[in-house]
DUF2236 domain-containing protein
Amino acid sequence: MENAHIQTHAPIHSRDRFAISRYVEENLDPETDYEEIVFLIGAYEYPWLIRKSLEFALFRTYGVPHTSRILRATGQFARHGQKRYDDTTLLLAGIAEKGIDSDYGRAAIAGMNRFHGRYHIQNRDMLYVLSTFVFEPIRWHEAFGWRIPTEKERLANFIFWREIGKRMGIQDIPETLIEFEAFNIAHEEAHFVYDEANHAIGEATVHIFLSWYPAFVRPLGRQIIYSFLDDRLLQAFGFPKPSKFIRWGAKAALWAMGRVMRYLPPRRSPYLYTEVPTRTYPEGFSVTELGPRDPAPGD
């Protein structure tokens, strides 16, 4: 890979479960050390939970018709769903693992700007996507994590994504967490409405998720996925509500996993998604391979 991961002086070899959180609180400033904080949370404290929260963050954006219509027109979900998923994960994870202004980070952001530049994407929609990357990890962390995120961690996540947004040319990014969350909530209230494109992209995404598991568990898996979508989003996709029991059980299981993790030994080495084989790139990849290969929509 082009760059080593972000360097840190955190006590990562400590057996103390709270050593990293204390290090962040006592030694780091979210205004300047946001990349290190995001790296420590994503690579050591909550790698699996962060990944799932970002998966569902992207899922939420497909409940906005203007976004889902563009995605359906590209044909990428229909023809290259797994590749699109892997590419998005590796682009975002790589920036967090290697740094916004690393060779990888600059190439990833340039690639995303190039892909997005092919389509007429409104600034408000780009801003909403950015807001989901800020708030869904925080919300999942609060709901299912083995500890509550600190204010420094929340602020660092906001500044990290704000800096990426600036490099992507996104305009009018709010200056505070409170203002940005207000935008996030208001945008969903105004723009989560049913559309056939929402349903098509939502179904394609569910299919990708379910394809990772044996066929006999997929009906239950579908209900579990629905359990992590709120009623307004389910309606925007045209998905049925899951049973109250399954919804409660899915969330309770994830919450219980967080309680168990609180008493497990801390991770001693980083979990780096860019170094894990994927279905699309089992032998590794280059950042320049990531993203759609088609030169234009529908080609």
About this structure: Confidence is low (pLDDT under 50) at residues 295-299. The CA atoms of residues 174 and 182 lie 10 Å apart. The chain has one domain: 19-263. Residues 19-263 form one domain.
